[in-house]
Each structure stands twice: as structure tokens, then as C-alpha cells.
Amino acid sequence: MNSAAINILRGSKHSLLAIALLLAAVLFTARTANTQQLQRGISVNMPVTTSAAPMPDADNANALIVTATRNGGVYFGLDSITPAALPEKLSASLSNREQHLYIKADARTPYANVAQVLEAARTAGLTAAILLTSQPESPAPGTIVPPKGLSVFVGVVPASDAPVVQLSSGQPSSTLKINNRVLPWTDLQTRLQQILQDRSDKVIRVRADGTTPFAEVAHVIDVCHAAGAKVILATPEL
Predict the structure, then answer these.
(1) Max Cα separation, the chain?
(2) 179 vs 103, 162, 167, 212, CA distance in Å?
(3) How confident is the model at residue 79 (pLDDT cuts 50, 70, 90)?
(4) Residue 173 has what pLDDT?
(5) In the chain, where do the E strands start and end?
(6) For residues 191 and 188, what is the distance between their CA atoms, to the nearest angstrom?
(7) Can you say how many angstroms the Cα of residue 24 is from the centroid of all Cα atoms in its chain?
(8) Is the four-CA dihedral 209, 148, 61, 30 of positive or negative sign?
(9) Residue 177 and residue 74 in contact, taking contact as beta carbons nearer than 8 Å
(10) Which CB contacts under 8 angstroms, 24+ apart, belong to 34-40?
(11) What secondary structure does DSSP assign to 101-131, as a single string?
(12) What local confidence, expressed as pLDDT, does residue 170 receive?
């Protein structure tokens, strides 16, 4: 083989190597561009919401994060824990009663699995929690997105005339009611705004049976927030 042919082959190898390195860089950038800023933890597919507020403190090293997985597993930070042991663990970890509890639950898990975490929080003396969620927007490449979540009150019984949104699991989606009257899902926000416009407390109580997918419960809470309401989330036992 003459020297010209050898140089062509060498040039081809260098070109192929350069192309391979370029593709690797592009793939790496694509995978890391939309990084959500949240401390390392158990991975779940959180429900997508549009009214969640930024929760940067959820990324602090000492943030209290409880995860409910799709199959019913419960984790305190990275450690597996039983629901029965969770209230004591929460009580021991709280530096003060104003400290936030962040719940990271899989969208596909039955609400009963989230409710047991809420009940543990209530038993530990907490009256509120923040449900961490995913967001529909696509941030610019390289942007670090702070965690976002929906705040809820836990197990607090409101005035008897407070509006109640009820969810009963079914197919293809759960049955939705407001004050025992069936309502189409598409009418939820409009109806809530009508109900709340003459009320000073702006409070909605949300109830769901244990088999309701958590994604649907999160959607109702999301719509309540969009309508300007505070949400009291009742566990099935309350």
C-alpha cells in the first residue's frame, strides 16, 4: 500500500473518532440538560402538575423526604421503613413543628400508599405536608430546575359547610363529585371558582378512596390550587 493510501486511511480513522466523540458529547448533553435539582433519593415517576410552587428547600441535605413507591414501599430518605415505624421516625427527626415534610409519591401508586404516609405525619404532630411533583415545561438546556410541590393540610377538619371534592376509583377514570354531586373532570376548575368566589376561607377538602391512582388525587389538588384554594387532604380513615 502506498503512502497516499495510508494517509487517507489514517485520516478516515481520525474523522471517525472525532464523529464518535461528538455524538457522545451530544448524547451526554441531552441526558443532563433538563436536570431537576433534588437531592439523591429513591426514584419514582411523580405526577405532573401545573400549579406547583418552587420548593428549593427540598434539596437541602437535611430535608425530610418520604417516598411512596408504585408497589407500596415507603422510604425515609434512602432507608426503607414500615408505615408503622414512620411516625416515631418523623417525630425524632423534626427539629421544630414548622419544619416541612416533603412527600415524593409515584403517580401510579394507589392513594392508600400515600395516605399511610399522611397519617404517619399527622400522628407525628404535623398538620401540613408538601407533595412534590413533576412539571410539564421543558427548561432550556443546562437549566437546573428547582423542586416544585403542592402544599396540603393533613387531617384538619374544616367547618361543616366547606366544599368537599370526592374521588371514587373507576375505569377509565375515577368518578368525581363535589358535595356528593357528580361533575365532569373538565368542569372542575370552573365549578370550584364559582363555589369559592363568595367564600372568605377559600378552603377545599379533598377525599379519595384508597384505590384511586395518586395521579388523579394530585390533579384535583393541582386544580384546587389553580382556583385559589387551600387544600385539606383527608386520609381514607378520617
Answers:
(1) 94
(2) 27, 9, 11, 18
(3) very high
(4) 85
(5) 53-54, 64-68, 74-76, 79-80, 101-105, 128-133, 148-154, 164-168, 175-178, 181-182, 203-208, 230-233
(6) 5
(7) 32
(8) positive
(9) no
(10) 34/138, 34/139, 34/141, 34/143, 34/145, 35/143, 35/144, 35/145, 36/134, 36/144, 36/145, 36/147, 37/144, 37/145, 37/146, 37/147, 38/132, 38/147, 39/63, 39/65, 40/78
(11) EEEEE-TTSBHHHHHHHHHHHHHTT--EEEE
(12) 85
- Outline where 143-213 has alpha helix (H): 188-196
C-alpha cell of residue 212: 384511586
Mean pLDDT, all residues of the chain? 82
3 state DSSP class of 138: coil
In this predicted structure, the answer to whether residue 28 has a pLDDT above a threshold of 60 is: no
**What amino acid occupies position 184?**
P
Beta bridge pairs of residue 53? 149
Nearest to 77 by CA among 113, 112, 40: 40
Instruction: Write the CB contacts of 158 (distance below 8 Å, at least 6 apart in sequence).
Output: 201, 203, 205, 232
What is the average pLDDT across 148-162?
80
208 forms beta bridges with 167
Beta bridge partners of 176: 167
- Identify the pLDDT of residue 157: 60
**How many residues does the structure list for the chain?**
238
C-alpha cell of residue 141: 438546556
